[in-house]
Each structure stands twice: as structure tokens, then as C-alpha cells.
């Protein structure tokens, strides 16, 4: 019998478990079968790897030598297998590209960009309120790309094989009922807005509420927030005049709702594109960024309040060069 990688994994599993019984359970085999396999491995290698005792097994000096080499070999082999699997996926045209997104105006533009660079792929998408699980999904290769976002001082961490590309940083605007007295103004003071009742999203791992609270504190107070809501429910609370809130600058006004800049631009939001460095979209990163950036500018033009703000602030809210 020749030594195989699976034999080294068995030896490592026995040492990790500390007993043949526990190792057998972890390996989904029986204790007698594992004991017999260990004897064959020891015969092949030429010495006992473990002393069998009533409380479990203890590694022999010879076993320490084998285990030291095994633990040096196995990570490299596992890395080789992972790299070749990724290379094989990149070699073949991907049958499906999975995209994630937070609540942002870029998802449609990203899907259209991916369709252009990979016309034969089937695209799927799922949305989350927080960017953190989406970032984890890309690192684990459960997603190929995502639209993410973060706030100043709370930037998303890089790593895990994920490429992050900050597309643009834009101001955060006020969301009001169109009948609210402040809606008649070109811009709204955050200090004045804090005096109102608020509708706010529930706290989650994107730390938006924490960021808002930090900026609110600079105005000398915290808003009363009797309503916790998101999406359509939040908009309806604002439309009815029960509350005010904040929104992305690209939010397009709907009947009954007004979007206004905040005086002094105290709050900012950064749009970020992400994909896996070893994924099928890595080779098209520059092209995808350009296409999504063009789509973002078209969205800006469709938001009258933000379009006017950009005219008054020509050096802010610009796309990041790539």
C-alpha cells in the first residue's frame, strides 16, 4: 500500500481528537475500522505513531516526526487544490454570476455591465440591508460581485480575496413630506431637522445608525425616533408627515415626498463595488467600473435635487478614477 494524502489526514484527525473513538466519529467511520486503518499506516511508515491508553492516545516521538511533516504538507496541497479549482472555473465561461446589493442605485447598472462583459452567463441577484454579509459571501465565493456601501470612519475591511473599488462618495440628504415647511427650502439645517420626529432603519452590522448618532451629537442633541422602519414603510411614514428621515442623494422623489440637501453637508455615504480577485469578473474590473460609473451619472441627472447640488459643488461627488 502506498502512502496517500488521506492517510496523513487520518493521522492528523486522530491527534486532533485525542482518541480513536472521537476521531472515528469525526471521520464518520467506526472505531474498529479506524484502528485497523491506523495499524496499516503505521506498518507502512515503519513505527507506532500513537501510544494507546485508557484515556485516549498520546503521540510517540516517531509520530511527532510524521505529524510535523504532515501538517507542513497538507496546507500546501489544499491551497493547490483550491487554486486549480478556481482556475478551472475561470477557464470555463461561468454558467451563473451571483450578484448582491445593499439598498443603492447601482444594482441595475452592475447587472447590465456584467451582461455586456459575460453575455452568456445567467445572472441572479439578492439584496441585503447590510454590506457585511455580502462582503463575507464574496470572500467565501458564494457571490461573484456586489454593490456595497459604508460611512466615513466605518470603511469596509479589505481582505479575504475581495477587491473593493470605491466608486463615489456622495452627501446624505434629508427626506421630508412635500407638505413639510422645510421642504420649501433649497437646503435643510440638520440642527433644525433633529427637532422633528424621525423614522430610522433598524440597527444592523453596517453601523449606519451609529454614524448618524455621532453626527447628530455634533448638533447638540439626538432626534426622537419613535418609528423604526425601512423601504416602503419608512417612505410612507415620511409621506404622511409623521416623521422625517435621511436618504441617499440619488433617491428620486415620489409624489408626496421631498428630497433636500443638508446645509453644510454633514453626512456622507460611499458607494463601493466588490468582486473576488480570483472570480470570473476580475479580468473585467476596469470595464465594469466604467459602465457602472456612467450609469451612476445618469441616475444623478434623474434626481433633480442632487443634480442641482452637483452644479453648486462641481468638485464633490465625483467618480473615483481607475
From TrEMBL:
Superkingdom per UniProt: Bacteria
Pfam families given in the database record: HTH_1, LysR_substrate
Cellular component, GO, one term: protein-DNA complex
Gene Ontology molecular function terms on file: DNA binding; DNA-binding transcription factor activity
SUPFAM superfamilies, sorted: Periplasmic binding protein-like II, Winged helix' DNA-binding domain
Record carries keyword Transcription: yes
Keywords: DNA-binding, Transcription, Transcription regulation
Protein name as annotated: DNA-binding transcriptional LysR family regulator
Organism this protein belongs to: Streptomyces olivoverticillatus
